[in-house]
Specification:
Layout: E1 3-8, H1 12-23, E2 27-32, H2 35-39, E3 49-53, H3 61-71, E4 77-81, H4 86-94, E5 99-102, H5 107-143, H6 149-161, E6 168-171, H7 178-187, E7 196-200, H8 209-214, E8 215-216, E9 228-229, H9 231-234, E10 239-243, H10 250-262, E11 264-265, E12 274-275, E13 279-284, H11 288-293, H12 299-305, E14 308-311, H13 321-337, H14 346-354, H15 360-373, H16 382-385, H17 400-418, H18 423-430, H19 434-443
Parallel strand pairs: 1-2, 1-3, 3-4, 4-5, 6-13, 6-14, 7-10, 10-13
Antiparallel strand pairs: 8-9, 11-12
Helix pairs in contact: 13-15, 14-17, 17-18
């Protein structure tokens, strides 16, 4: 860690002496003859110590102290006082000076005071970082909802990686929320004030790659009436999210690799290169290793985009997170559509747990909205919504035998979901012998494996 010191003294000999002593102890010293010049270099995230003489023309050390306090009260200021200025030193300490050195002072005394002040500043900034991290996680938990271990680990990884500039590859099935994670990586980083640009790679025609990604000048080709800003320039100093990057044709992959290596672009029709500063987040719903073996994806591009690879779990692996997410989406739908959703029944909860959710979170959100909007004569049932069937107007449709069979199936399915496929627990709960339960499960197409875990 760099140990920074800002030194202010109008006497050149004193500045050089102090600077040499601190340099020998691995401090990085920036010295100034004027307090005004030094203050212009400070900000609230300054990670060092200020050492200033008290008596100086223009702006005194006491005024420097007051100015630094206005920037950040926790930046340590050490004042150098002359003989007989003890009263002034006491006053300075009352005004939050970290310490003072009375002339003449030894190099050992200087190093002791400055080192202690630097340790204090390091601790302050670390505490701030941790508090900020906790605040970020709190906000992130509202955005990436779930209590399962995989989602908790994913939130921790996002928190740790957001402030870095490493390229990240998100691996997960369609609909698992990869763009939500990419946006979180952007929003919880210092790039947040700058653009987040999301691109569906499968939607860009190969012949439009240069124009869309790099931009073009007016008149660069037929139809280029106006200048166009490309994706990379638009995302400069921000984050660019390449969704389903594996869908990029090989010629486009080569061009993308060059941009990522050189960090420069040249718009079509231009003769000037433009430096770009972007954070790249990519996503894919299939294993890239397989695509590389099939010569559909460049290995060198893969190594460029996946400095860190994060796995986004499918909804079927997230246990009761499906219930949390369903309730969350229903609340959003109620506000958006200005109507109250039907009451969720135990059968509905069982159906939510039992469904495989091939469309993942995206499918669940759709079901939540349909559940909220349903206004038939009867109530919507999740079991029918997830099967894509129109809900019955009421449960009484059909013969008595059909109604009884449907009710019996729902009760057994609910118990299987409740006990995660444990047949012994289901037998005890429903009071059924094993053979009878097995026969009914075969009759209704209920496999215990579907409910396990």
């Amino acid at each position: 860690m760099t140990k920074n010191v800002v030194l202010i003294d109008d006497e050149q000999v004193m500045r050089r002496s102090v600077e040499q002593w601190l340099d020998l102890s691995d401090f990085n010293v920036r010295s100034f003859s004027s307090g005004h010049e030094a203050l212009a270099q400070l900000s609230a995230d300054f990670d060092g110590v200020v050492v200033s003489d008290v008596k100086m023309p223009g702006i005194s050390g006491m005024e420097v102290l007051e100015a630094v306090i206005n920037i950040d009260t926790d930046i340590p200021v050490i004042l150098i006082t002359g003989h007989g200025e003890v009263a002034m030193a006491v006053e300075a300490m009352k005004k939050s000076a970290h310490d003072f050195l009375e002339k003449p002072f030894s190099p050992d005394r200087l190093l002791e005071v400055v080192s202690r002040a630097h340790d204090h500043r390091t601790l302050v900034l670390e505490n701030r970082r941790l508090r900020g991290k906790l605040a970020d996680v709190s906000g992130l938990a509202k955005r990436l909802i779930g209590d399962c271990k995989a989602i908790q680990a994913l939130r921790n990884e996002i928190t740790d990686l957001a402030s870095t500039n490493v390229n990240i590859l998100l691996q997960g099935e369609t609909g698992t929320g990869k763009e939500v994670i990419a946006r979180a990586l952007h929003d919880f980083s210092n790039r947040a004030p700058n653009p987040f640009t999301a691109i569906d790679c499968g939607a860009i025609a190969a012949e439009l790659f240069e124009s869309e990604f790099l931009g073009h000048e007016a008149g660069a080709f037929t139809g280029a009436i106006n200048k166009k800003t490309g994706f990379f320039e638009h995302a400069n100093h921000g984050t660019i999210f390449l969704d389903e990057i594996i869908n990029l044709p090989l010629p486009m992959q080569a061009k993308l690799l060059r941009v990522l290596q050189e960090r420069q672009i040249m718009p079509v029709g231009s003769t000037k290169t433009l430096d770009i500063d972007i954070r790249l987040v990519s996503a894919t719903n299939e294993t890239i290793d397989k695509a590389i073996k099939e010569d559909r994806f460049r290995a060198d591009l893969y190594y460029r985009v996946n400095t860190i690879e994060l796995y986004v779990p499918p909804l079927r692996e997230r246990g009761d997170d499906v219930i949390l997410l369903f309730e969350h989406f229903v609340q959003i739908a109620e506000r958006e559509f200005k109507r109250d959703a039907p009451k969720v029944s135990p059968d509905d909860l069982a159906s939510l747990r039992a469904h495989d959710w091939p469309g993942n979170v995206r499918e669940l959100k759709n079901i939540s909205e349909r559940f909220t909007l349903w206004r038939g004569a009867g109530r919507a049932r999740i079991s029918e919504l997830v099967q894509g069937a129109k809900p019955h107007e009421d449960r009484g449709n059909g013969s008595l035998k059909d109604q009884m069979n449907q009710f019996e199936r729902d009760v057994i399915a609910s118990a299987l979901a409740k006990y995660e496929g444990n047949i012994s627990d289901v037998m005890l709960d429903l009071g059924l012998p094993r053979r009878t339960l097995n026969d009914k499960m075969v009759k209704y197409g209920l496999a215990k494996e579907k409910y396990s875990g």
